[in-house]
Write a structure and sequence with these properties.
By secondary structure, this protein is an alpha/beta fold. It contains ten helices and twelve strands. The protein folds into two domains: about 110 residues, 3-Layer(aba) Sandwich (Rossmann fold); about 180 residues, 3-Layer(aba) Sandwich (Rossmann fold), CATH 3.40.50. The longest helix has 17 residues. The structure holds NADP nicotinamide-adenine-dinucleotide phosphate and glyoxylic acid. The site of NADP nicotinamide-adenine-dinucleotide phosphate has 30 residues, from helix 6 and strand 7.
């Protein structure tokens, strides 16, 4: 079995070591420009066109992340009929739950405001917020969205969820489809975006949808930068309509030094680390799926290419 692996400078030795241990029968090679020798599987993250174009003999393409927008953007250059598989949780769920819970609690307990007071050596009590007024809306009720929901429910926050198809989730007020997006936004004091980036979800967080949030709302974006119209957020934060935002992802990454987000104190930034790929768990999941594919059985994690996730 031959596997081509795309090196993007992240933990290469760890990946090769884990693949060698978990799939000892496989010959894993790092793909390089000009390599068009046969391969059974490809393991990639935002692959260059030349790596996959014409490779219709592949049995599957594995994403090294939960999102596959960086693969599907190859469009017609993706070999037709080859399944694309994404990571399902693989150690990312708990990290997402930690990240979003931290951001929500920071706003709910007003730690962002206390931090500013501390800088001025100012000892002042701020009135506590009421939990029942602090409803959290989660855009995307998939593997990671549901993990976030479960973590927030632990603290007793009212939770709303929005997905493409109607869902029933215990204790969650569920909304579905574009026609229910406005009602979802109006009902959410904090909105968390954990959607896949597709043609339908690109730019979904714009002045119209964000303007539907209650006055003084918060945004947490842990999905993709292109979900957000950045200038619209900036204007809404500067007008006070949105009280704060925590952003892990950006239209351009790394975020350029001159970007106004760096200088807006009500916007908190992290460099796309909300949920990082865990090498051990990811290799175990990929290896298990290769074994299933080799037996000709149906496998989990196959992306619906037309739908985009
Ligand atoms: P998933 O299991 O595929 O869940 C996707 C959810 O989004 C589903 O509930 C789906 O609705 C919903 N959805 C998709 N298109 C929609 C639309 N047009 N309207 C409404 N809802 C829509 O994906 P996941 O594993 O939770 O991952 C989600 C995303 O998180 C990834 O694609 C990636 O971009 C991002 N991510 C970011 C990081 C980071 O570090 N920042 C790390 C990992 C992942 P249905 O349930 O109805 O299908
Ligand atoms: C990270 O952003 C992922 O999609 O796994």
């Amino acid at each position: 079995m031959n596997i081509i692996f795309q090196d993007n400078g992240n933990h290469l030795d760890e990946w090769l070591q884990a693949l060698k241990q978990t799939l000892p029968q496989a010959k894993v090679r790092i793909w390089q420009e000009g390599d068009d020798a046969p391969a059974d599987y490809a393991i990639v993250w935002k692959p260059p066109v030349a790596m996959l174009r014409g490779r219709s003999a592949l049995k599957a393409i594995f994403s090294r992340g939960a999102g596959v927008d960086g693969i599907l953007q190859l469009g017609a250059d993706l070999p037709a009929g080859v399944p694309v598989l994404r990571l399902s949780d693989a150690g990312m769920g708990v990290q997402m739950a930690e990240y979003v819970t931290h951001a929500v609690l920071r706003y709910f307990r007003r730690f962002d405001e206390y931090q500013l007071l501390e800088r001025d050596a100012c000892w002042r009590f701020l009135p506590p917020r009421q939990r029942e007024d602090f409803s959290i809306g989660v855009l995307g009720l998939g593997v990671l969205g549901q993990r976030i929901v479960a973590a927030l429910q632990h603290f007793g926050f009212p939770v709303n969820g929005w997905s493409r198809t109607q869902k029933t989730v215990d204790g969650v007020t569920c909304y579905a489809g574009r026609e229910q997006l406005a009602a979802f936004m109006q009902a959410s004091k904090v909105v968390v975006c954990i959607l896949p980036l597709t043609a339908d979800t690109q730019g979904i967080l714009d002045r119209v949808s964000l303007g539907q949030l209650p006055q003084g709302a918060y945004l947490i974006n842990v999905a993709r930068g292109a979900h957000l119209v950045e200038d619209d957020l900036l204007a809404l934060v500067q007008s006070g309509q949105i009280a704060g935002a925590t952003l892990d992802v950006f239209a351009q990454e790394p975020l350029p030094r001159q970007h106004p987000f760096w200088r807006e104190p009500r916007i908190t930034l992290t460099p796309h680390i909300a949920a990082m790929t865990m090498v051990g768990e990811s290799v175990a999941q990929i290896a298990q799926r290769i074994q299933v594919l080799e037996q000709g059985l149906p496998v989990d994690g196959v992306v619906d290419i037309k739908r985009g996730y």
